[in-house]
Amino acid sequence: MNFQLPPDLIQFIKDIDAFIEKEIVPLQKQDDNDRFFDYRREWARTDFENGGLPRKEWEQLLVEAKNRADKAGFFRFHLPKRYGGEQSDGADGRGSNLWMAVIREHLASKGLGLFNDLQNEHSVVGNFPDVVMVENFGTEEQKEELIGGRLKGKVRITFGLTEPLHVRRRCNILVLMLVAMLTSGRVLMPPTWQPTPSQRPEMASKDG
Questions:
Q1: pTM of the entire structure?
Q2: 34 - beta bridge partners?
Q3: Which of 112, 147, 181, 208 has the greatest count of CB atoms below 10 A from its CB?
Q4: CA-atom Rg of the chain in angstroms
Q5: pLDDT digits (tens, 9 = 90+) for 120-160
């Protein structure tokens, strides 16, 4: 097995680093934006007087960084070409999972910064598992609405987990997955769950 990284991938990482130094580092340094990444970050990012929601300044900074990365051709890199990415079906593997694994490891190794934040999945090289999900399982209408909206920053796709009928035994945990479009509150997939044997009254043990 060949463990050598492709020369094109090595050069691409160098291009990312050069972009970060030119565009992202100065953006983080201006207007005391470092406060979002140093020991002050929890308070800087969170508007505690507004129910603990993210501060507008924080979200606006992330949008600006993503816009710069998108303009430079990095943000959508892992997406298919029809969505503005560079994912290739060819032998070069450009935009493949291998490339993304190396890129994400490289960015993570650089530490916390406006270029990459593992806590909220913000990165100048976008990670789009939700786009992949909709692309493979969504209807054409959903693809147009959700993927297009996601890339324009108008739609967020998320899921929630809860534990209905949960009791003290860990094996009795139920999982409820709800896929929703937060901007409108409209549920796109109805919540469904199946009880495990221990949660069915006729099969549950006496100790619950």
A1: 0.73
A2: none
A3: 147
A4: 21
A5: 899 999 988 888 888 888 888 888 899 988 888 888 887 66
